[in-house]
Every structure is written in structure tokens, then in C-alpha cells.
Amino acid sequence: MLLMSALKFKRFSLLGWSDGGITALIAAARYPSLIHKLVVWGANAYVTEEDLQLYNAVKDVSNWSEAMRKPMEDLYGKEYFAKTFKAWVEAMSNITSKPDAGNICRHLLPFIECPTLIIHGEKDMMVPSFHPHFIHQQIKDSRLHLMPNGKHNLHLRYPDEFKNLVEDFLC
């Protein structure tokens, strides 16, 4: 928010994917006067045991397909990516052991006031479909768009459809 203030933006829209979507949800709840519109995809507001099973199944990135693993290794380096992803899975596990039972930002969702578009791939193997439905139920006047063949990276796999959805919503 400091960056946007330094750039002299009074209001702006946020888009966030996965953990970036969680960050955008938190920002929209904490700074409602600054956020014009919000788009999230592949995001969740809490972590469940079902989520942990999915995360643990992919914790070892050496078991990923090369098509999924290589772009991340090229970007972050093979060793750093493997170490960081494993640490992320362990952090998610720690969240579920806390007294607030896996809460990331579910308590903040009712404070989001801006128009919100939640996009979700129905074949997302990282974020089960109950998460976008929960987010949709908690954010007043939000819209939920499900992509039947979309996975966690639906914006990369279906860039034209994704771009059209987002542009239509933001305009």
C-alpha cells in the first residue's frame, strides 16, 4: 500500500493468484478505501487437513512433471525452489496446528467492500473447490466464475478466456 501511495494512486484494483490472492484478500479487507476492485484465483482463506494431504503429495518437487517443475527451477534455481516449496508446505502444516484452526484470512473476508471476482479452475489440484465457494459466500456481492477445465494455473493455460473475464470485470 505504501508503494501505491508513493505513486500517488488514491484507489486501485488488485489481482492475485494463489498466495498472491490471499495477500490481495488481506489488503482489500484492511484497506477498503484504497481498493477499487479485486480479482483472485487459486486462493484460499484457511487450510484444512484435506489441503495438507494435497500439499504433502506434491512436497517433493523432484516428483513433479518437468513441464511444471522446470519453469520454477529456471526462475528460482533448482535447489532454492525445492527447499522453498518444502518449507512452504511445512508452514501450511504449522498453520493448522494453531488455536485458530488453519485460519489465514477467513476472519477478514466480511470486511471486503469492493466488487470482487473469484475465479477457480474446477480441476485445481492445489485448492479444492470448497475454498472459492467459501470466499464467495463471505464477500458481499462477490462473483464466482468456475472454469470447468481450469487447474491452478488457469491464467497460463487459458490466457485469452482469463484476460477477457478480468477485463470485462474491471471495465
TrEMBL record:
One of its GO terms (molecular function) is serine hydrolase activity. Keywords: Hydrolase. Residues 10-162 form the AB hydrolase-1 domain. SUPFAM superfamilies: alpha/beta-Hydrolases. Signal peptide: none annotated. Pfam families: Abhydrolase_6. It comes from the Eukaryota. Transmembrane segments: none annotated. PANTHER family: VALACYCLOVIR HYDROLASE. This is Valacyclovir hydrolase. It comes from Pelobates cultripes (Western spadefoot toad).
